[in-house]
Structure formats: C-alpha cells, structure tokens
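Fig. S4 source data, part A: sequence.
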Amino acid sequence: MGNILVIAEHAGGTLNQATAKCVACASSIPGSTIHVLVLADGQDVAAQAAQLDGVSKVLCAINPANAQPLAAVLAPQVAAIAGDYDYVFGPSTTYGKDLMPRVAALLDVNQLSDIMAVEDARTVKRPSYAGNAITTVRGKDGYKVVGTGRAASYKAVGEQPACDLDTVDPGAELPTHSRYVELQSGASDRPDLQTAAKVVSGGRALGSEESFSIIFDLADTMGAAGGASRAAVDAGYVPNELQVGHTGKIIAPDLYVAIGISGAIQHLTGIKDAGTIVAIIKDEDAPIFEVADIGLVGDLFNVIPELKAALG
C-alpha cells in the first residue's frame, strides 16, 4: 500500500497507450493511490491522462523545456516531485527505459525493470534471460520503489470521468549539458508499433528494401502496424525503430502476423504475449511454427497478394 506516481509518456500532444498500461501495472498494488505526472509544455495531454481509470489526480509540470522528451531534462523534475511517493513507475518503452534509470539514480535507489506481475507491495516478477526465465525480485524495505511496467504484460485501463488536475512547479534545476536538436523519424499513418492491436512483420526472406513494401501494403489493408525482425533491420530493409524482439520492441498485439520470419529466440521473446500469432514462411521446420497459432508453409510472394485480395 502507498502512493504511486506514474510518469506519462506522450508525443505530438497525444498520450501514449503505454501510460494506460503502466497505470494498470500500478493498479495491481492493492490499496494504493495513483497519481499521474505529465511533463509537457501545455495541458492537453494532462486532460487525457485525467480520464484514465484508477487515477485520482494528475499533476502537470508545464515548462517549454518539456516540449520534447529529453530524459536529462525530465528526470530532475520527476525526482523533485517523487519525494512524497512510495512508488514511481514509468512504462517499459524506449521513453521509460531512457528516463526511469536516471530517476532511480537521482533518488539513490535500485530500479525494478520490466515488471510483469506484482506479488505484493514490494515483490514483483520480471522476465530475464530473454524471457526464458521469470525472476521474482523484492525491493528493500524502507526504500522508494522505482520501476517500469512491462507494457506487453498489461491491458490498458479504461476511461473514467476526469479526475482533479493540478499544475505543479518541480523547482528542479534543469541541466544545461544536454539540449534537444531534432527528431528524425519516418512519417507514417500506421498505428504505433508498440501499442497497435494488429501488427504485420517481415523478415530477411523479403530479400530487399523494395520488396518490403508488400509488408506495408498488407499492414495498411489490415489497419495494422508494420514491424520487422532483427535480421531484416540488420540487412537494411527497414529502420531499427520497426524492430520487434528482445533487442527491439516487446509487443503484445491481439494479432501478430509474421511473414518470412524463421523465429529466432530474440524475436519470439518480443511476441510471446500476442493474442494470436500467424506465421507464413517457406521453411516448414522454422522455429516460429512452435509458437504460432496458425501456420502456413508457402512462398510469401504468392501468399501475400492472395491474402490481400481476400481481405478486399
């Protein structure tokens, strides 16, 4: 039992669904009061966070310096506000993995990473050895718990009538050694890979960057996010922001379609919590068939056009 501060992730004025999943993680600690901290340059995101079910208050730290998610700037503010809280949680996304270790260091505590289940107020379970083992970890009594909630292990909380929203001033001294320059990313209208309900991924069997376009065409037809195996990323077919797996993004969509992906252990680790896994590949002995709910042995260059036509 205790007070929990959840750090919101957002971009482009929109709250990332990983925050709703992190609130679900926090809600699994019984008897706790959950507040959400939004670090931004306006109140739009805070209004969205106020509607997350189970949140009793949203704190909004408004500062022009918070317009971009620069961990070096955000961490001192989180640490300054975290003093009255027993737990400080962030999502186990790229954002959370960048920010929360800094927060833990500033608070002089260890971090409990990738929380996938809560045993009691100070004991959690987390994956280790690329998900091949589940470790039970206990935070030391008398110390604040700083952790990241594994988004793939939780369903996003629903909505509630908006709770109270308070504007706060952390009063933290912001660093001058780091500054935001620019963000380079591929523009896409597809859903966010880490939170999408449907994902279509391609592997090295696509053979080239040009051929990978059929994966994106199928994803667009299905209203799905596009992803890729590490082998496809290493081959230069797609940027690494699309990599799915232990060394990429760990996801848990309702539907995951793996095309031309053999199923290396690091990839399977990233998709094992998916609702339904569909595998399409030539090799009938591919490891991915061991975890697939539906498997099709065939030439992807023949199968995908047929599948796309069937989907209309």
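Fig. S4 source data, part B ends here. DSSP finds eight helices and 17 strands in the chain.
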